[in-house]
Every structure is written in C-alpha cells, then in structure tokens.
Specification:
Number of helices: 12
Shape: elongated
Order of helices and strands: HHHHHHHEEHHHHH
Mean pLDDT: 77
Largest sheet: 2 strands, antiparallel
Radius of gyration: 25 Å
Number of domains: 1
Helix content: over 70%
Number of strands: 2
Low-confidence stretches: 5-14, 133-139, 151-170, 172-181
C-alpha cells in the first residue's frame, strides 16, 4: 500500500504547471489507487463478521503486510512527505491493526467456546440416567454457537447427505442452480463496488484539482525525486514485505484446497489498487532517473499482481472442485 510516489504531485504548490494528459491520467490513477487502499480491508472485515471466524485468512499474511505498511510509513516520514501522505500511511497501519485484532479476537473466542464444548461433551459422553436434561441442552446450545471449521470434507458431506440419505439428483441440481444465482449476485456486487471505487477516486481527484489541493508536478521533478537513502532502503524493505506477504495465504489455500471465508472483493481491490498505482507512476514519467527512484514501489505494486492472479486462480479452481464433488 505504498504511496510515496505521490510526493511529486502533492508538494508541487510553488510552480504553476500546465496540466497535460499524462499528468491528468497519473493523478486520476493515483486517486483511484488510493481509494482502493482506503476501502481494501472492509470486505474481509465484513466476511469475517458474517462467518463468525477468521480461519480463512492467514495471520502471517496480515502480519507481514502490516510490517510492510509500517516500513512504508517510516519511509514516508523519513523522506519528508507532506502531512496528508503520512496521515494516510498511518491510516493504513491502523486498518491493518483492526483486521489483525479481529482475527485474534475470533481465534481466542472460538478456542474458548470449543474448550467449553469439549468439556461438556466429555462429561455427557456416557450420561448417567440421573443427569439433568438441562445440562445436555446447554451443551447442545454451546455447540450451535461455535462456528463450524472450514472443511472441504464436511461441505461435501453436507452436499451429499440430507437427513442421513444420499441426496437425490434433483436436489443436487437445485443446489447448483442456487449456487449459480449466488455467484451472479456476487459478481454484480463486486463489479458495482469496483465501479463505485473508480467513481469516488475520479471525483476525489477532480475536486482536489479544481480546489488547488492537487497540482501537476514541476518539470524539474520529472527526472527523479530527491529522496534520502534511508527512505529508499525502507521502500525496498516494504516491497519485499508486500511480495512475501501473500505467499503464506497462497500456501494456506493450497493446503485447505479451499478459499471459503476469503473475500474475493478484497483481492480484486488489491489487484486494482496495485495496477492503478504502478500505471500512475509510469504515466507521470518514464525517464530513467524517475523510474530508478520509484523502483522499490513499482516492485511492491506490480510484483504483487502476479500473486493476486494466483489467488484468483485458486478461487476458481477450488470452487469448481467443490461443485464437482457436490454432484458426484
């Protein structure tokens, strides 16, 4: 979620520079990218809340990503960026902390509930005739409050069995139709969200430009932005974190053979944010010195797009596998 490249445009308040098509495109793309990052974590927060757990998402993924945002913040402060850029970097760190806290909360809560359930089950495994029925009912109510673990085999059993009997072909067909309808609704929702993000981003840039908050970068900056060596090092370190963060999630999806519980919109916004971010840098300038200066942030944005595509493939591959297993 690096935003250091925006320095050239936002700090250029002292020189009047005509707005070119490339500079306008850079500003629009940068604003859309920033909007993606601001709303990025919201879909996954909602998904975790609906499921009552956060087992689908790799905690290591979030922690490494958080480290990347922290080093990005340090780099921004070190480079002497304007306060609004530093404030946005702080927001990113806070948003990461909220999602990590939610995951830890659900993990601790569900562990406690499962521990209570195990104790209740062990005490009622061989119930004595004198055991009050209230105790059994309490145990049953506890089991209903514990969110079910993500398990491919359990989802297959639910698809194959109905009231202890093999599901009839008509029932399986009806289930597939329902899932297709849900998939269409999800597709419409995701595309609507992406469209809304683009509209908000473009509107935000237009307002900033018209009000004078955003100005085209002076020509002297086109050859490269003067940046402290320490800030550059922080940029490379954050890029490494961003590149490595998704690997634990990809591996977890592979081991679970499922992406159930992950928000597809979360990764769509990530891909879109990285794409518009890298494109915004290249639209601003393609001169050698400028590209070299922004290399760590180009690596951190465009490089992670490959990993996002891998996760999209996993979404599709494991969804198809689940549907095939439900029909068999």
């Amino acid at each position: 979620m690096s935003i250091l490249w925006a320095q050239g445009s936002i700090t250029a308040a002292g020189e009047s520079v005509p707005l070119t098509q490339r500079e306008a495109a850079s500003g629009l793309l940068g604003s859309i990218s920033l909007t993606c990052w601001i709303f990025l974590l919201v879909p996954q927060l909602i998904e975790n809340y609906r499921n009552g757990n956060a087992e689908a998402i790799s905690l290591l993924f979030l922690i490494v990503w958080f480290v990347g945002d922290v080093t990005n913040l340090i780099g921004g402060a070190w480079a002497g960026l304007v306060p609004v850029i530093v404030a946005i970097a702080v927001y990113f760190c806070i948003a990461d902390g909220v999602l990590i806290s939610q995951c830890l909360y659900y993990k601790a809560r569900n562990s406690r509930l499962e521990a209570v359930l195990r104790r209740r089950r062990s005490s009622t495994a061989t119930p004595d005739p004198t055991t009050p029925l209230l105790g059994r009912r309490f145990s049953d109510s506890i089991s209903e409050t514990v969110p079910r673990r993500r398990s491919l085999s359990s989802s297959h059993r639910e698809a194959l069995l109905t009231n202890g009997s093999v599901r009839q072909p008509d029932d399986a067909l009806a289930k597939i139709v329902e899932e297709n309808e849900d998939g269409q609704k999800a597709w419409v929702k995701n595309m609507s969200s992406v469209l809304a993000i683009c509209v908000i981003g473009m509107a935000g840039w237009t307002i900033a430009w018209q009000s004078g908050v955003w100005k085209p970068a002076p020509r002297e900056h086109n050859g490269g932005v003067h940046m402290a060596a320490g800030a550059q090092i922080m940029g490379y370190f954050s890029a490494i974190c961003y590149l490595g963060a998704r690997l634990p999630q990809i591996y977890k999806n592979y081991c679970d053979k499922s992406c159930e519980g992950l928000s597809l919109l979360f990764f769509i916004l990530s891909l879109m944010g990285n794409l518009t971010y890298g494109a915004g840098i290249l639209c601003h300038s393609t001169e050698k010195n400028y590209i070299i200066t922004n290399t760590p942030w180009l690596i951190g944005s465009l490089g992670t797009m490959v990993e996002d595509v891998i996760i999209f493939v996993q979404f599709r591959m494991y969804a198809v596998a689940a549907d095939t297993g439900a029909v068999l």
